[in-house]
C-alpha cells in the first residue's frame, strides 16, 4: 500500500474507533443512571434496533444459516435479532456486574437474580490443591462466572480477548476488574502467564469458542474451523483438572450459573493428552450449550473462517 494512503487509512481508523468508543461510553453512562434491570432492558432494545443495521448482521444471518440448515428464514432472522439484544445486555452488564451478582446460598431457590448449580462441586474444588482450568463460551453473562467462583473461595485468573477497538479495550479491561480474580489479555506472553499460575497450583479460566488461525483443525456445528490448543497443552503440562462452566440468561432478568462435573480429555495410546481430539471435545461441549440457547451465543464473529 502507498505510504500516504496507509497513513490516511490508519488515521481514519483511529478516528472511527475513537468516535465509536465515545458513543458507546456515552450510552453506558446514561444507562448507569437507571436501576440495573431497566438499564439492561434499554440496552437490549437499543441493540435490537442498531444491530440489524450493521454489516455484522449479515454475517450473523449467514452463520445461523450454515449452523441450522433445517431452519427457515423467519427463525434465522428472529434468532439473529434476539442475539443482538443479548449483545446489548453484555455491553451494559459491564456497568452493573456487582449489582447483578446477588447470590446468597441461604436464599430460597428462585429468589434473587442469580441461581447456582454445582455448589457442592465449588466447595469441593475450593479445598483441592490441584490446579484447575475452567472453560466456557461466549454465552449468557459469562463475566459472572469468576465472581461466582470467588464467592466459594476460588480465585480464578481469566484469559480474555481484547476488543479490536483500542479505546474500548482499555475501558473493558478496567471494567472487568471486579471482585474475584485477575485478567490476562490474550496476546503475546499470555500462555506464559497462565502457565506460571498453574505452576503455583492456581486456577485459570478460558473462553474456548473463538477463531484461532493457527489452531488445531476441528469442526463446530459440523463445519471445519480451527481451535486454540492452549487449554489441552496446559492440561498436559501441569496435569490439571478441567471443568466446564456456563452462564444462562433466564426470563425476568435472572441468570443461572452452572459448574459441570470434571471433563476427561481424550488421550493418545501413550497416555498423553491428545491435543486435536481435546480441542474437538471442547467444541462439542460448547456446541451442545449453543444448541440449547442459540440466541445467547455470539453469531456475528467469523468462527468458521479458515
UniProtKB/TrEMBL annotation:
InterPro entries registered for this protein in UniProt: LipA_acyltrans (IPR004960)
Q: Tell me the domain of life.
A: Bacteria
Q: Which GO terms describe its biological process?
A: glycolipid biosynthetic process
The protein depicted here goes by the name Lipid A biosynthesis lauroyl acyltransferase
Q: Which organism is it from?
A: Aureimonas ureilytica
NCBIfam families linked to this entry: PRK06553.1
Task: State a single Gene Ontology molecular function.
Answer: acyltransferase activity
Q: Which Pfam families match?
A: Lip_A_acyltrans (PF03279)
Query: Where does it reside?
Result: Cell inner membrane
Kindly state which keywords UniProt assigns to this record, in alphabetical order: Acyltransferase, Cell inner membrane, Cell membrane, Membrane, Transferase
Q: Name one GO cellular component term.
A: plasma membrane
Amino acid at each position: 500500500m502507498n505510504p500516504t494512503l496507509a497513513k490516511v487509512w490508519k488515521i481514519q481508523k483511529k478516528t472511527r474507533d475513537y468516535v465509536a468508543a465515545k458513543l458507546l461510553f456515552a450510552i453506558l453512562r446514561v444507562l448507569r443512571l437507571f436501576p440495573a434491570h431497566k438499564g439492561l432492558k434499554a440496552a437490549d432494545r437499543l441493540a435490537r434496533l442498531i444491530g440489524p443495521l450493521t454489516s455484522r448482521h449479515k454475517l450473523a444471518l449467514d452463520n445461523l444459516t450454515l449452523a441450522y440448515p433445517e431452519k427457515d428464514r423467519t427463525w434465522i432472522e428472529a434468532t439473529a435479532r434476539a442475539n443482538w439484544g443479548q449483545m446489548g445486555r453484555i455491553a451494559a452488564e459491564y456497568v452493573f456486574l456487582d449489582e447483578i451478582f446477588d447470590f446468597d446460598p441461604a436464599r430460597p431457590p428462585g429468589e434473587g437474580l442469580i441461581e447456582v448449580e454445582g455448589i457442592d462441586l465449588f466447595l469441593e474444588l475450593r479445598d483441592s490443591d490441584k490446579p484447575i482450568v475452567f472453560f466456557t463460551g461466549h454465552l449468557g453473562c459469562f463475566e459472572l462466572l469468576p465472581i461466582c467462583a470467588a464467592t466459594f473461595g476460588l480465585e480464578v485468573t481469566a484469559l480474555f480477548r481484547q476488543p479490536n477497538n483500542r479505546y474500548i479495550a482499555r475501558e473493558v479491561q478496567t471494567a472487568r476488574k471486579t471482585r474475584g480474580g485477575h485478567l490476562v489479555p490474550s496476546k503475546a506472553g499470555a500462555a506464559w502467564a497462565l502457565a506460571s499460575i498453574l505452576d503455583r497450583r492456581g486456577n485459570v479460566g478460558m473462553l474456548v469458542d473463538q477463531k484461532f488461525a493457527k489452531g488445531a483443525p476441528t469442526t463446530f456445528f459440523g463445519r471445519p474451523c480451527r481451535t486454540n490448543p492452549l487449554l489441552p497443552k496446559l492440561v498436559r503440562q501441569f496435569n490439571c483438572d478441567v471443568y466446564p462452566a456456563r452462564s444462562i440468561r433466564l426470563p425476568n432478568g435472572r441468570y443461572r450459573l452452572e459448574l459441570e462435573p470434571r471433563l476427561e480429555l481424550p488421550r493418545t495410546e501413550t497416555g498423553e493428552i491428545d491435543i486435536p481430539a481435546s480441542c474437538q471435545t471442547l467444541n462439542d461441549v460448547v456446541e451442545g450449550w449453543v444448541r440449547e440457547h442459540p440466541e445467547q451465543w455470539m453469531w456475528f464473529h467469523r468462527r468458521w473462517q479458515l
